[in-house]
Each structure stands twice: as structure tokens, then as C-alpha cells.
Amino acid sequence: MNLYEAMNLRKSTRRYCWEPLSEDTLKRIGAFYEEVESLFPGIRTEIGITDNLDRKHMPKGLFAVKAPYYLTVYSERKDRYAVNAGYICEQMSLYMHTLGLGSCFLGSAKLPKKKRVHDDLTFVIMMAFGKPEGILSRRSADAKRLPLQKLCTYRDEPGRMIRELLEAARLAPSAFNTQPWRFVAADGNIHIFSKKNDIDQFRMLDEFSFGTMFSHIMIAADELWLDVDLIRLENISQKDFKKSQYVLSAVVREE
Ligand SMILES: Cc1cc2nc3c(=O)[nH]c(=O)nc-3n(C[C@H](O)[C@H](O)[C@H](O)COP(=O)(O)O)c2cc1C
User: Fold this and answer.
1) Which residue's CA is the nearest one to ligand 1's atom 28?
2) What was the pLDDT predicted at 255?
3) 87 and 160: one domain?
4) Are residues 26 and 80 both part of a single domain?
5) Ligand 1 centre distance from Cα of residue 173 (Å)
6) At what angle do helices 200-223 and 160-170 cross, to 10 degrees?
């Protein structure tokens, strides 16, 4: 199974078997992180893996999930660091799925103060993971997501490739499943907008969610052998939208 296939099957896992993972599995997760593509390579990140098999390292927080392992993600606090972290973490989550492991982002989980900084990097998010208790996968058709008709406006009839990219974006996980993105498909490209969110507390989670969605677009592009650039187009960014804000465009490069 590759990341694209996992993308169509992944769901958040909230119940786990309290079984240890093999050294080899944990090593493979670490090795995948070392090679993982980031969105902004100029932003330094680091991960840590906490073994919680003794249940002594449960994170605090209203929606925290009890799991045998936690991935903790730290990042330099540069512009758009949370988007970058989401881009990386979704690939980690999909990779875990290919190993038969479930995972769940924990945007609400809190770390004790002394653990919120690692070297000079700041804590971004935790992700629960481990062997799932029950079924790991679900069909993409069963994912609770808004239909494309609600998420996307079409300026022209999109081709099959653009539809596939949009479908991949639609499936991305978001905090509280808010799906804060909207799309405009025009001229063989996808312009991406964010529903305005004025609540500071949720802005980081929204940005992180955008990162997961961008990773879905790029994984699908890879699968389809498409050259896609995620870039801001100035002629769009200068326009003023009432309820949403322009983020960037997925521009499909011609052969
Ligand atoms: C940034 C972010 C934060 C999240 N935080 C939590 C959380 O604290 N607790 C939880 O149970 N799920 C959390 N989730 C999982 C979402 O609720 C889940 O991805 C969404 O409902 C879609 O469901 P699915 O992942 O099963 O497709 C988070 C997801 C994202 C992207």
C-alpha cells in the first residue's frame, strides 16, 4: 500500500490495543520522518515518540485520546509553521496506516510546561498511534465530508485530473472536521480559499489542517504523475472576498 491508497482508507483511530510495537516498526517510523517531504524546508522540525504502554504519559485535554504511543511534533516558530507541520504529520499518519497502525491528531492535548519547548523548538501537536482495536480502514465514500458541490465552485468543466486532486483535498482531515477550505477550479488549476476564522485559539489548528489538505493534493499529484506547484498568485490575492480569504493555488504545470 502506498500513501495515496492509505489516503483513501485512513480514518482517525480512537481505540487502541495496548500492545508494544516492534523495534523495527518504531525505527521505520523514525526513518520515514527523516525522509519526509516538508512544505517549507526552511522551517526546522523535530519529532519525539512517547511510549505510553504503562499509561503514565496520558496527555491532558478535553478531546485527548488514550493511546499506547504518542508522536510529539516540535517546530521552529516561523511564518506558516503550523501548515508545514500539518503537511508533514499527515504523511506520517498515512505512512503509519500503510504499516497497519491507526492514528489520531490531538489538537486539544496539552503538554506540561517544561515539555512545551524542545531545544529552541516549540511544541505544535501530538498524535496518538498504535495498533487499532477494531477496524483500521474505512471506504472513502464513508468519510464524513462535505460534497465537492459545497466545497468547490467551477469556472469551467474540470478534467479528470483536477477532479482527482479535488477529491484528495476533500478527504483531508481537519480539526473538529470543520473542513475550513473552499476551492475554485478554473483554467486547469485549483485556487484555494480559507473560511475566515477570527478565533485566535483555532487559527493554529486551521493552519495545521490546511497542511494536511496540501499534502493530500501533492500525494495525489504524485500518483497521477502531475507536476503541481502550490503558489500564491498575485492577481488573486489582491482581490477581496467577504467570507473567505485566498490562501494559494495548486497550479498544474503543462508538459
Ligand atoms: C489539527 C487537528 C486536530 C485534531 N484534534 C483532535 C482531538 O483533539 N481529538 C480528537 O479526537 N480528534 C482530533 N482530530 C481528528 C479530527 O476530529 C478528524 O480528523 C476529523 O473529524 C475527520 O475524521 P477522520 O480523521 O476520521 O476522517 C484532529 C484533527 C486535526 C487535523
Assistant:
1) 175
2) 65
3) no
4) yes
5) 6
6) 140
Q: How far apart are CA 85 and CA 75, in angstroms?
A: 7
In a domain, 30, yes or no: yes
pLDDT for position 111: 81
135 is a domain residue: no
The protein residue with its alpha carbon nearest to ligand 1, atom 19, reads 173
CA of 59 to the centre of ligand 1 (A): 15
Q: In 10 A of CB 159, how many CB atoms?
A: 11
Q: Establish if 185 belongs to a structural domain.
A: yes
| C-alpha to C-alpha distance for 163 and 222, rounded to whole angstroms | 15
Retrieve residue 26's grid coordinates: 518504531
Q: Residue 238: what pLDDT? A: 63
Residues with CB under 6 A from ligand 1: 11-12, 14, 63, 65, 104-108, 143, 173-177, 205, 208-209, 212
Cell of 173: 482531515
CA of 120 to the centre of ligand 1 (A): 27
Q: Which atom of ligand 1 is nearest to the CA of 212?
A: 31
153 and 116, same domain (yes or no): no
Question: Cα angle at 243 between 217 and 197, to 5 degrees?
Answer: 75
Instruction: Please tell me the predicted confidence (pLDDT) of residue 201.
Output: 64
Residue 123 sits in a domain whose CATH number is: 3.40.109.10
13 Cα–ligand 1 center, Å: 9
Q: How far is ligand 1, taken at its centre, from the CA of residue 239, in Å?
A: 32
- Chunked mean pLDDT (size 10), the chain, 255 residues: 97 97 98 96 95 91 91 95 97 98 94 79 96 96 95 89 96 96 93 80 88 98 96 78 86 83
